Amino acid sequence: MKILVLNAGSSSQKSCLYDIAGDTFPEEPLKPLWEAKVDWTHHQGFAEIEVKTATGAKLEEEIASNSRSEVVARMLDTLCNGSTKVINEPSEINAVGHRVVHGGEDYRESVVITEDVKQAIARLATIAPAHNPVNLEGIEAIEQNLGTITQVAVFDTAFHAQIPDAAAIYPGPYEWVEQGIRRYGFHGISHQYCAQRAARILGRDLAGLRLITCHLGNGCSLAAVKNGYSIDTTMGFTPLDGLMMGSRSGAVDPGIIIHLLRQSDYSADKLDNVLNKASGLRGISGISGDMRQIRQEISQGNSRAQLAFDVYVHRLRSYIGAMLASLFGLDALIFTAGVGENDAVLREVTCEAFEFLGLQIDKEKNKHKSVDVDISTPDSAVRVLVIHTEEDWEIARECWRLVK
């Protein structure tokens, strides 16, 4: 079965094509036959396309277009023609899987896309305005270019659908509950993949594990995973809640919002921009939301960069503690995504706070840039894993499950 995966962002898009043979979905992730990245950020009105194949062929080009449909058409053309050709015609593709950020209360698992599903994704754009509209554009672009091919929506919120009400309900008026205002959680595709991968690395049944998965990239969230299900998480009604992130504030005292709204120069739109794009590591450091640049500035004695790192670590430790309380214990702590996979110092200082649990990391193993490994000492009471998240592979798995 050939499965095309589209992971659409507001200013970028990642795509890949998997060829999965046989009647059983492989335990180990396969390398895609073909991968494509599109970036609209460098030149307004132009899309930069980068394509590579498993055999090493590469293509880079820039096209004048803001239309996702036109760009998808060009991407599909590179699948079937030129140096990056891996299939003879688009009809060889059996299914297309899409990452869709918000599924609300209606969609608690992945679904085959219908008109009703599309309408729901559009309706939920009011609470995921930066994500759901572009996810829908990707779906419609495939319709325009591939016709009636089976498409699957894989929701980032679905993995968290089992969170108990005590963890999901905000302590506001009950009318909020009736309006669907609750903790939905995000990064669910990554948390789901990492939980399954952790069980395989440990040689354990996922149904018997208590895990905390730390997805630390530009966006950051934790999930408390018990017996394979998310029972608590840090992102909430929107992806703004919880941990300090690259440019997002994470949780702040709501009284601050009220205070700022009472200032004459603050509006809802300005607050939205401040909290989502001018806070977090970028806001505190004044430099960047990229942890690599923060670490570089710290090495040169930049005190604001050091403060940004210290606040980040404090809040990460605090929320890990909260997840511990939800789980009543811990079998493994997992670090994933760009920061989690690559920043050894962050992992070490985070883990130091949990030595009282008997958690011990091997500092030499931790320094090595390797993934899908256990970096804890043999006698550690809690395993510590670094896992390379494979969201596209998890989307392909969901397509396989629904279509096969």
Descriptive labels:
single chain, about 400 residues, alpha/beta, Nucleotidyltransferase, domain 5, 2 domains, 8-stranded mixed sheet, 6-stranded mixed sheet, 15 helices, 14 strands, globular
Which helices and strands appear, and what pairs or packs with what?
Layout: E1 2-8, E2 12-19, E3 34-39, E4 46-53, E5 58-64, H1 68-80, E6 95-100, E7 111-112, H2 115-123, H3 132-146, E8 150-155, H4 165-168, H5 174-178, H6 188-202, E9 210-216, E10 220-226, E11 229-233, H7 254-261, H8 268-277, H9 280-285, H10 291-299, H11 303-327, E12 332-336, H12 337-342, H13 344-352, H14 363-367, E13 373-374, E14 383-386, H15 391-403
Parallel strand pairs: 1-6, 6-8, 9-12, 12-14
Antiparallel strand pairs: 1-2, 2-3, 3-4, 4-5, 7-8, 9-10, 10-11, 13-14
Helix pairs in contact: 1-3, 6-15, 10-11, 11-13
Q: What is the percentage of strand-forming residues?
A: 15-25%
Shape assignment: globular
Number of domains: 2
Under CATH at level 1, the class of the largest domain stands as Alpha Beta
Structural class: alpha/beta
* CATH level 4 superfamily of the largest domain: ATPase, nucleotide binding domain
Provide the low-confidence segments as ranges: none
Give the end-to-end Cα distance, rounded to a whole number of Å.
8 Å
Largest sheet: 8 strands, mixed
Across the major sheet, the strand order is: 5-4-3-2-1-6-8-7
- Count of DSSP-assigned helices: 15
Order of helices and strands: EEEEEHEEHHEHHHEEEHHHHHEHHHEEH
Global Rg: 21 Å
What is the name of the CATH topology of the largest domain?
Answer: Nucleotidyltransferase, domain 5
Mean pLDDT: 93
User: How much helicity do the residues have?
Assistant: 25-40%
Number of strands: 14
The CATH architecture of the largest domain can be named as 2-Layer Sandwich
